[in-house]
Amino acid sequence: MVGMTTMESPDRWRSHGPMSAPGDGMLTFDGLPLDVGLLCRVVQGVLIHSDWLAAYGVSEAQFRTVSRETLPLAGRLRQIAELDGAALTVERALDRRAVGTCRDYALMLCGMLRQQGVPARVRCGFATYFRRAWEDHWICEYWREGRWRRADAQLDGVIAASLGIDFDLTDLPDDKFITAGEAWRRCRSGAANPEAFGHGEQASGLWFVRVNVVRDHHSVNGRETSAWDTWRQATAADHVLSDAECAETDELAAHPETSSIEPSPPWLGR
Question: What phi and psi values does residue 88 have, to the nearest 5 degrees?
């Protein structure tokens, strides 16, 4: 597998941020397995994806809360404990898991790895193994044996079987997931069609690739969620990017880790 861009010293991503810190509640990340595959199993045993409930044979009515809001891990662990106070390593019944999205799976794996002193970060980009050619997705990137590896904690046995997954989900092949910055550069160079990148049937195109470039920039700078992250409110007029926005996104795509860059929202403030 080709080595991935390190950006800078991985030590920067060894410590918790506000979203990844587990807090001091009943459930903690202490004493968990060191193996990334086993950590993914732990994550899968306490979370269930809001878009895949039917695949598990359950419905929204069986859950106390169904939300796409990404919670800080301290809050998420409190929610899990309220549903079932068993240790995190105990797999919950389906209707006693917390409902989340791919970002929640990635964030929880990131927090578990950081708790063990492993550099890890949540990345926003696009995966090839869902409904469209390149589907909006979040994964966890972690540093091991001298390079960044990418893990998808969401894909348990149920989802993996449904999608026909036949590759290592703890070390994703380069052609299965790319960051938003990688997608943007492909689109800008003409190597990829921007319309192939998007979120289900709701959004696609270069403007949405830019949304994810900005989200990935915020994520690697410790802001896995942002107040402006409301792309569903964008209108057709917002889908047209100015030359200034494209130039700004070129810089963000090349250097997502640069905290000195403060991008304008993808559509607000026109």
Answer: -60, -30
Q: CA 107, CA 67: separation in Å to the nearest integer?
A: 16
Q: Which residues pair with 199 in a beta bridge?
A: 203
Q: Are 39 and 47 in contact, with CB atoms under 8 Å apart? A: no
Q: How many CB atoms lie within 10 A of CB 270?
A: 10
The gap from C-alpha 8 to its chain's centroid, in whole angstroms, comes to: 20
Nearest to 139, CA basis, from 40, 221, 209, 73: 40
With beta carbons less than 8 A apart as the criterion, state whether 206 and 177 touch: no
Residue 120 φ/ψ, nearest 5 degrees: -155, 150
Q: What is the mean pLDDT of the chain?
A: 91
Domain residue extents for the chain: 10-254
Give which of 193, 238, 237 is closest to 211, Cα–Cα: 238
Q: How does 101-122 read in b/e, with b if 16+ C-beta sit within 10 Å? A: bbbbbbbbbbbbbbbeebbbbb
C-alpha 180/C-alpha 213 separation (Å) is 5
Residue 198: helix, strand or coil by DSSP?
strand
pTM over 0.85: yes
Separate counts of helices (H) and strands (E) for the chain: 7, 8
Query: For the chain, what's the residue count?
Result: 270
- pLDDT tens digits for range 76-130: 999 999 999 999 999 999 999 999 999 999 999 999 999 999 999 999 999 999 9
- Whole-number Cα distances in Å, 109 to 43, 132, 142, 222, 230: 7, 25, 9, 15, 24
Cα 185 from chain centroid? 20
Give CA 149 to chain center in angstroms. 14
pLDDT digits 0-9 by tens, 241-257? 889 999 999 999 999 99
One-letter amino acid for residue 151 of the chain: A
